[in-house]
Amino acid sequence: MKGTYCILDDEKDFLIVAEKEFKKYLPDMNGVFTTDSDDAIDLARKDDPVIFIIDIVLGGKTGMEIFQRLSAVSKKVRAIFITGDENFINDDNVRNQILLEGSVDLMEKPIKWHELAIKVKNNMQLLLYQCNLEEIIAERTQQLIHADRLATVGTMVSSIVHEISSPLTFIKANQEMCRYAYDKVKKMTDDKEVLSVFDTLILPSVEESMNGIGWIEELLHSFRRFYRRDDTASEVNFSELFAEVKNLTSYNIRHNNINFSVEISKSAPKKIICKKQELIQVITNIVNNAVDAFEETVGMKGQKELKIVVSGDDFMTNVVISNNGPAIPKDVFERMFEPFFTTKKAEKGTGLGLAISRQILKFMGGTIYVENKSEKHPTVDFIITIPKTYNA
Fold first, then answer.
1. How far apart are the two ends of the chain, measured CA to CA in Å?
2. Mean of pLDDT values over 97-122
3. Contact present, 218 and 161 (Cβ < 8 Å)
4. Which of 83, 96, 161, 171 lies in disulfide reach of 88, CB 3.0 to 4.6 Å?
5. How far apart are CA 120 and CA 53, in angstroms?
6. Mind giving me the DSSP string for 172-230?
């Protein structure tokens, strides 16, 4: 069992007996035996779960005063008071005060060691459960706060998309007007020099602008779809899904000169039933993580490769997202799906992407795991399995 107990008593002979008995009854727990209250305070400062067994009278101090100091240092401490004074045992006011101070019990010397060991073990289990529950609540609270921030960002993006769309409409209309003007000029003049200016300078620029406008429009559509909430599952075409992923990640892909390819094998189903935007979120997150890994690579030789391969059968679909970037360090590999764990700078990552991705896939009835790059394995592979039919 995890956790530590600490016996604080001013009688050294008592501590010698206590150490012998507790090692017999609680061999799997860490024990501290001391006459010095400062040792107990130092132990509490570590902020680990500790059950203190404290004598009510310790020289010039009282056990309750010491426990008040311990409680001020850490919320992960509990106390069982002990005493050889019958006046304390029979005094209801003392017992009530001890319990009000947050202690567990008051036991009389000579100690029944087996009984005390059971109380320490049971209360440690309760303390560990409480600490774990508080950590889960704190984690969920942070996730809710972050989710609220993401919702705010989604609202902002929606507004930005709207604001960009309006002037984009005018720009597109003006470019189309240039095309119209070119057609009019061709009908009005045979001047080869004038037509040459249109053909070699103006019209190519208009065409490039129209291509750029088309790309921006598709990107804005992708943003709208990405931030739209998925309430129900629907039939999803893989080709369309990966087109969305490419739109959302294209800038970083091009900026880092990465060769990004998608291969859909003949065994893969052409369509699956799932929540499309959630699956896009998962794949986009993994792709962006790979891009970030490439960014941190200095002097990498050869072409940067990021490849998605889809395969499957009548029941399951497998999506493998591979990159030939650096291997994931062992300490990161072991914790990469933990919420809020990240090696990125604050402005680049929250540590929630992979944790949320795994949760999304779990709700779909799917899984995600990673094969790390090694001497025998040339790539870092994120392997996703998804049921062909969404069951939630």
1. 37
2. 84
3. no
4. 83
5. 9
6. HHHHHHHHHHHHHHHHH---HHHHHHIIIIIHHHHHHHHHHHHHHHHHHHHHHHHHS--
CB 69 within 8 A of CB 41: yes
What's at 225, amino acid-wise? R
**CA nearest neighbour of 323 among 372, 379, 250:** 379
Residue 125 falls inside a structural domain: no
Do 14 and 159 fall into the same domain? no
Q: Is residue 156 part of a domain?
A: yes
300/22: higher pLDDT: 22
Q: How many residues does the chain have?
A: 392
Is 243 within 8 Å of 284 (Cβ atoms)? no
Residue 341 inside a domain? The answer is yes
Residue type, 293: A
The pLDDT score that the predictor gives to residue 57 is 80
Which tokens go with 280? 């896009």
Is the overall model pTM greater than 0.90, yes or no? Answer: no
Dihedral pair phi/psi, residue 228, rounded to 5° = -80, 130
Alpha-carbon gap, residue 294 to 225, rounded angstroms: 27
pLDDT in tens, 144-186: 656 655 555 555 566 667 677 778 887 888 888 888 888 888 8
Based on the fold, state whether residues 91 and 53 are members of the same structural domain: yes
Give the torsion sign (CA, 39, 41, 45, 46): positive
Contact (Cβ atoms closer than 8 angstroms) between residue 23 and residue 69:
no
- Shared-domain flag, residues 242 and 381: yes
How far apart, in whole angstroms, are the C-alpha atoms of residue 269 and residue 314?
7
Closest to 79 measured CA to CA, from 98, 57, 100, 52: 52
Distances (CA, A) of 113 to 1, 70, 98, 168: 18, 24, 21, 80
Q: What is the mean pLDDT of residues 193-216?
A: 83
Using the 8-state DSSP alphabet, how is residue 109 labeled? S
Most confident of 10-19, 56-65, 85-94, 223-232: 10-19
